[in-house]
Amino acid sequence: MEVYSNENEQVDALRRFFANNGKALVVGVVLGVGALVGWRFWSNSQDGNARVTSAAYQQVTSALDASKPQTLAAASKFASENNNTYGALASLDLAKQFVEKNQLDEAATQLQNGLKNTDDANLQAVLNLRLARIQLQQKKADDALKTLDTIKGDGWVAIIADIRGEALLSKGDTQGARDAWSKGIESDASPALKEMMQMKMNNLG
Known about the structure:
It is found in: Cell membrane. Residues 15-205 form the Ancillary SecYEG translocon subunit/Cell division coordinator CpoB TPR domain. The chain crosses the membrane at residues 24-42. One of its GO terms (cellular component) is plasma membrane. 80% of the residues lie in helices and 0% in strands. It is mainly alpha-helical. It has a domain at 1-62. The radius of gyration is 26 Å and the shape is elongated.
């Protein structure tokens, strides 16, 4: 009802404006109505485009199979042609497939491309967390730590602490790893994640 109420108020305002200012402003009113119609057309077009893009994303990602190069190529093409959230999600899905094929460089590239396609902070965090894990597998601990530093938000503290501990330990910084996991345990982490970090600390001796 709120939408209809606002539209009615806008129409009433146009009517009053026209009544008070006479026929001399007909052109202005027509242009205003034209702009409104144009905006609605554009909005409806955007909604339609989003639905088409969503359907295309579902199609290419549901067919993804690491053993079938053509499905990887199709998803990669979709990701490169869609500089939006769907493109970023496709890059995320592709990265998983490349990790399964142990093609870590390609997986990292997909995640980095995905980061360019979205402004959503939570999706960026997920992409960066995956990227940091891959960088660890690539023996690039310093790169992983830099990637973790870009992630903002209290909801990611525990996961960041877990990966940071792994990165620091791989560099031989046992105390740094202990401090990172301790911070993770003290955060609002899930019981399972806290237990896992506690076990890692215990293994340090």
